[in-house]
Amino acid sequence: MKKSLLLVLTATFIIMLCSCAKEKETFSYVENMTGITITSYSGEESDLTLPDEIDGKTVTALESSTFENCQSLIHVTFPDSVTEIPANCFKNCINLETITAPSVKKVGLSAFEGTKLIQKDGFVIVGDGILIEYNGTGSNISVPDTVKDIGSVFFANTTLKSIFLPDTVTALETDAFAACSELCDISLPTTIKSIGPYAFYGCYKLEYIDIPAGCESIGEQAFADCVSLKSISIPDSVTEIGNNVFLDSKNVVVTTPFESTAFTYAAENNIPIE
Hints:
Elements: H1 2-26, E1 27-32, E2 35-41, E3 47-49, E4 53-54, E5 57-62, E6 75-77, E7 84-85, E8 98-100, E9 106-107, E10 123-126, E11 130-134, E12 140-142, E13 149-150, E14 162-164, E15 171-172, E16 185-187, E17 194-195, E18 208-210, E19 217-218, E20 231-233, E21 240-241, E22 253-255, H2 261-268
Parallel strand pairs: 2-5, 3-6, 6-8, 7-9, 11-13, 12-14, 13-15, 14-16, 15-17, 17-19, 18-20, 19-21, 20-22
Antiparallel strand pairs: 1-2, 4-5, 10-11
């Protein structure tokens, strides 16, 4: 009996060692202050579950282009310890259709470029409410209330005229609505905390916009080249404003409380204030 038990334990231990060895062979990684960062993958799995630990240390991050050109991947599951998908992470993984990543709160540029995932109809949402693609054709659309963060989804969408954002949205990332040349109607929800760089760059027909109280930052050139923009209201909750926010938006008048960050910014840049 003892001999049989010993054999079972030994076999189990060998299987565990083989599993660990295989894991180390397919993932390249580095150790840092927060845990393990996976830098590349050399396996050929179609349904891949990323490890939550390697060498007894928590996997906390991926490097840019980690899985780029991995054509075998169809589905990937993330551990809760990974909260960001970096730029180019799955670029040209041509067969990738789905990911399960409930704790991911940020997706880098071109992370899913060239995948089947972003070819789906309608809204493509990943992670914790991150809208990464819109494949609809409507000119007047409503964003689903499961969305919290909008990436460069509508960049250069020349059919979009009006859009409704639900009060679940907290951030507009870089280029969110850049070059939407026909966009003329958008209301920002009170939940918005940040407006990223170039978010409305080149929205030629946008005339009025109100930044809701509670918003904290506006990125550089966020409203640059908005040639028709006449009025923008900025609350005193906005304490960070990037460079050249209104570059070539020559007709804009800023409405903002006296001595707010926006008031100082407008005064220093010779922008009319109400």
